Amino acid sequence: MNTQLAQSLNRSSAKHDSDLTTPSAPSLRSAQPLLGLRPLGLAPRALLCEEGNALIRLDRIHKVYHMGDVEVHALRGVSLEIHRGEFVAIMGPSGSGKSTMMNIIGCLDHPTKGHYFLEGSDVSQVDKAGLADIRNKSIGFVFQSFNLVPRTSALENIELPLIYAGIPAGERMRRARAALGEVGLADRERSMPNQLSGGQQQRVALARALVNNPSLILADEPTGSLDTRTSVEVMEIFQRLNRNRNLTVIVVTHEPDIAHYANRIIQFRDGRIRRDFSVENGKDAGEVLMELPRETEDEEESGGPAGSKEAGAKE
Q1: How far is the C-alpha of 141 from the C-alpha of 146, rounded, in Å?
Q2: pTM for this model (two decimals)
Q3: Domain map of the chain by residue range?
Q4: Which one of 56, 222, 233, 303 has the fewest CB atoms closer than 10 angstroms to its CB?
Q5: What is the β-pairing status of strands 216-220 and 139-143?
Q6: What phi and psi, each to the nearest 5 degrees, are found at residue 5?
């Protein structure tokens, strides 16, 4: 699923400037509150979510895929609210609908029926150009496979969303360096992806997701390719960002131990929400790290597969 997300994100981002030269009316009208524009004669009720301060509100969302004459119901009337500052884990077996849900929350796909409100704006029918703009400004993505650009330094990888956003070079570098420092890699800005461990590559990917100051971080199996200690290090960064910056974080995972670093778990099955509950006595990644053996300096600086499951550290 993360490959599909990455390809869609890259295609939309690459077309970003040309697609937005003459945006269509649905793009402008549906996305105006997100983009800080004034409404074009539309009543507030047509645009704004009136219920509480939900960052995300899904209202009876359906998603149906057509495969020849067969209809596949990926989501069946899902309603859900996620408030600003929540840390949520989404779980479910293959085919449960969690990947489709992430596509819709990430503005990578439209629902077949129902409404999706993001930061108070109904983005259910926003066109592709408008969705690309929303993704660039409001959502940061983190993927299992990192999706860093080869032969491009860590700093340059982090700058990519800022290039699409039209940020001047000096400001891009300042923001990228700040984001790299926030994930503890200030000294690796000139390193290429193949010179970084798996955990370091994922931290670069996380810095790239943060660099545009998004309202929401969407992480698709962010620890799926990492060993135990490196997985906890990544979750510590998510927890710290959630607590210190009140950043909303949604993690899709099949690992129960990773889900319990979140404050809330939503379990999907057969296109519906099976359970939605608060995590009691959740794990603190900082405390867990203190109990784990530290990797050696050679492992940390090798730039090889250390920090990844391929290194054999995690079964």
Answers
A1: 10
A2: 0.78
A3: 2-22+85-107+128-293
A4: 303
A5: parallel
A6: -60, -50
- Please state the rounded mean pLDDT for residues 280-308: 72
Over residues 97-102, mean pLDDT: 92
Q: Say whether pLDDT at 225 is over 70.
A: yes
Using CA atoms, how far apart are residues 75 and 25, in angstroms rounded to an integer?
28
As beta bridge partners, residue 248 has: 216
Q: Is the dihedral of CA 295, 300, 303, 307 positive or negative?
A: positive
Give the CA distances from residue 178 to residues 67, 171, 184, in Å, rounded to whole numbers and listed in that order: 46, 11, 10
The tens digit of pLDDT for each residue in 101-122 reads 999 999 999 999 999 999 999 9
Q: What would be the CATH architecture of the domain defined by 2-22+85-107+128-293?
A: 3-Layer(aba) Sandwich (3.40)
Q: pLDDT by residue (tens digit) across 68-92?
A: 889 999 999 999 999 999 999 999 9
Amino acid (one-letter) located at 261: Y
| The pair of three-digit structure tokens given for residue 55, joined into one six-digit string | 């960052």
- Residue labelled with tokens 């798996």: 198
Place of tokens 């390809």: 7
- Longest pairwise C-alpha distance within the chain: 62
Non-local CB neighbours of 170 within 8 Å, separated by 6+ positions: none
Cα within 13 Å of Cα(100), Cβ side: 26
